[in-house]
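The aim of this short unit is practical: by the end, you should be able to scan a pair of folded records and say something sensible about each. We start with the first protein, listed as its amino acid sequence and then its structure tokens.
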Amino acid sequence: MTVRAALVAAAGTTIAHGSKSFAAASRLFDRRTRERAWLLYAWCRACDDIADGQELGHGQQRVADPQARIARIRDWTAMALAGNATGDPAFDGLALVVDEAGIPRAFIEDHIAGFQLDADDWRPRSEADLLRYCYHVAGVVGCMMAVVMGVPPGDEATLDRACDLGIAFQLANIARDIEEDDRSGRCYLPEEWLVEMDFPPGQHMKPPFRPRLTVLARRLAAMAGRYEASARHGTLALPWRSAWAVLAAADIYGGIARKVAAAGDHAWDHRVTTSRAEKLAAIARAARQATARARLYPPAPPDPALWSRPR
């Protein structure tokens, strides 16, 4: 087995265990794009696990040495991008996909900046703060994925739509994981929202305030829907199979946000997921949408109401 094949195999194992939703969507790519997507995912997953002291996204906990963990991410990433083997397949795989796809280094740095925000125990004060965080932890990953799919780094309009999809995914995650984040001492609900709903400090998960929390979760889900809708208009710039994968992922993750909104006060009784049947249905719908995307999602000017990524 070649070094590349070994790195791809390791990345494939990571995505299979780390995210069934992304794994399902990634199978729709052509082989080269799929392998590169796995390599990028494996690095993102490894960084997240190091930062949060977890394994494949599970077991998030408060860590005693957050700054040291971010320093490790920075050091191993820099070592890999300098052409030096780290011994960790996720970081060595990042160097491979950056070289093959031409991912801008600025995107790598922007993503690490998201982990730094968490290490600094940062909390969003405003909706704009929340969206800036969503960009760093997920929107810029959408930009990197677009480059993996062949979008030129200079195609700012398509990268903007890819960023919108990453933001939509993260907003869905935040709505779903409010209770889990609270157990880890984190809250991504903007302080201005909490004040608006008259939550006592630190009490947003208490049972008496569940109806108010439902209002905010539905606000997050509605925001996710707007960013998802914007992202769909970027799929015309992608090859058909890539558009199919993106639209499937949008539907699957959009389903999470919609389920959270529909569950109301019971959204955090159990972790919201999408079933295998729901994933297959989303994949089938996405195939039809990819074929008709010129009609369904023609190029459109950016929605001025949506947050714009930094240049």
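Turning to the second protein, read its sequence before its tokens, just as you did above.
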Amino acid sequence: MSQVVLKKVEKQYPNGFKAVHGIDLDIKDGEFMVFVGPSGCAKSTTLRMIAGLEEITGGEIWIGDKLVNDLPPKDRGIAMVFQNYALYPHMTVYENMAFGLKMAKVPKDEIDRRVREAAEKLEITQLLDRKPKEMSGGQRQRVAVGRAIVRKPDVFLFDEPLSNLDAKLRVSMRVKITQLHKQLKAEGQTATMIYVTHDQVEAMTMGDRICVLNYGKIMQVDTPLNLYNKPANKFVAGFIGSPAMNFINGKIIKKEGSLYFDFAGNQLLIFQEEKCKALEKYTDKEIILGIRPEHIGNKLSKIQKDEAKVNFLTGKVSIVEHMGNEEFLYFSISGIEMISRIEVTKSVSVGYGEENEFYFDIEKAHFFDEDTEENIIL
């Protein structure tokens, strides 16, 4: 079993600064778990505590059925892939991958078999005789991953392994690591992976589940789709998704039996029964509305507009970013800056300073308590 369990794990430095605040997390056997969050949120610190490279000051870390709090890294059954590859420059690829096995006194023929198997999986067989300086960054990172695979650890730990690569290489390596995880799992090998990144695209595309961290606390742990569609709080809603979610401060008002979200005299009608029930108790109270850019349209067909007649507001356009198949429209309503994401086929050409009608798909909106920032509907 390669399950990793964190129970009330804390990290406090000698100067009194508390980096990690009692984290509870259960990572399943064979799961690809991604830690994501802004710089300084303690994601790398948490990974290093699991690895044994950072001492914990409270709580318990379990790998499989072993409590590993006091075990050195070499006895924890982990293999770590670092951001800077950490390859020996004077050794060939083969020697780099075989080094850990030699130290563990694994038989020579077994070492050869494991190295060549891993090289084949990562498509680096032709590089086995080269030294690191003769390879690209992407090739070096594959070697670093290969060195981890040959050890057959209980858990793979990745600490921002792709951040030194250019955009195109990052995408291909991202796919390669995801494929590797699925391949190892299909072959019945250990495939528990914990992956640290600040790149939410990596997190969303790679993880079975994602753990969103901020200031050493877990904000939410869920599947990528649930994080996107059902964010537990304003932080997760704003962090996951690109461009970021729009946030508008306003008030819930009741008029003629219907609920409205009112900001600066602009009113958006709330239809959904489930939302109305949850928001009823917030009548005449300040809350925060969150709506993703793709849920604000800059024009619908005349038929749809005539049918709806609600949730259209006029905004002043400041910037239009042409992205090829879509456009990002930056606009303001009553001095509040917002962004709309629109497919080019549905787009109506607008320019700087022009006024345009925007449709708010309020049924897709989220509502957050102003004090706790928790998602009211959830």
